[in-house]
Amino acid sequence: MAAQLLIGQRRVVAYLPCVQAAVGHFRKFSSHNKPYHTEHYIVEATNTQTVWPDTNLGPFGPQDRRFPLPGLVGTNSSLQQPFKHQPHAEPDRVLPPLAVERHYQITEQFIISSEQIEADSGYLKEPPIPTPSDMLECVAQDCPHILRKDFTDLFPGHDIMEGAFTVITISQRTQHDMTGWSSQVEIERETLLATFIQGATEICDALQQAGYWADFIDPSCGKPYRGPHTNSSLFETDERYRKLGFEIEDLGCCKVIQHHLWGTHAYVGCLFTNAPLDHPVIQQMQQPHKS
C-alpha cells in the first residue's frame, strides 16, 4: 500500500489521457475571474465555551486571579464574590478544568470540526477509477506545515512556510518497465521527460498569470526548473516521494519509484504552487473528463 502524506490528507485526484489534458485544465486559472478567498473556520465548543485555537492552553497561560496560590487556592480577600454552596455540585463544575483536560477537549473539537469541514467540502469523496485510455494521473495535495520543512531547501527564493502550499504530482504510465534498462526504455524516458517539462512549464505559466507562484522539479537533474540555484535536489527515487503517496523500491544496484496502480510502469514529475487546494479550478479537476 502506498504511503500517505498524512492520515486524512486533503487531496484531489484526476485521471487524464495525456499531459496536454492537464495543461488545458490548469489554463482555466487564467480565465477564472471570480474573486477567491480562503474561508477561515472557528471551532466553538457547545458545553465548555472554548474557542480553537485557545490562547489559554499550556502551563504558562493566564491563571484565574481569584485563585493566585499554587493548586488553584485562593483567600477570602481575593474572592470577588462570596462563595455560594451548591449542593450536589459535580467536582468538574466546581473547579476549572486542568490544562491537559482543556487541551484534550479542544483537540477533540478540532478533529470533529475538521472532519465535518472536509466532508462538506468534498475532500472525502471516493477517488476516481482510471479507464484503459487514461495514461496520466494528476494528484494535488495540501502540504501541511509539519512537512513543508522537507522542501524548504528546494526553493530558497520563496517562503513556503507561509500561506497555502500545494504539491502536484504528475504520473505518466509507461509502456516499458522502468526497473530495466534498454534502448527502448531510454527513448521512452527521454520522450516522457520532454513531455513533462513542456506541460509543467505551461501549467506554471497559467498559475503565474493568475497571480500565483509555481515551480516544478526537472526530473533529469532534480533541481527546480525556474527557481534560483540550490544544492538541494529531489530525484524521482528520493525518500520524500513516500510522503506523496509513492513507494521506493531498492533493487540493490539502483532504486525505482513505484506507482500505487501502475507499479514500476510510471514516470513521475512534481510541481509546487501556492494556489490553495480548495480553489474552484483545482476542485473541478476531480470531475470526470470528457473524451
What does this structure look like?
The protein has 291 residues and is of the alpha+beta class. It folds into two domains: 11-38 and 131-286, NADH Oxidase; 43-118, no CATH class. The chain is 25% helix and 16% strand. The protein contains seven helices and ten strands. A hairpin with a 4-residue loop joins β6 and β7. The radius of gyration is 25 Å and the shape is elongated. The two termini are 30 Å apart. 24% of the residues are buried. The model is unreliable at 1-8 and 38-51 (pLDDT under 50).
> Which strand order does the major sheet show?
1-4-5-10-6-7
Structural class: alpha+beta
| Terminal-residue CA separation | 30 Å
Provide the CATH topology of the largest domain: NADH Oxidase
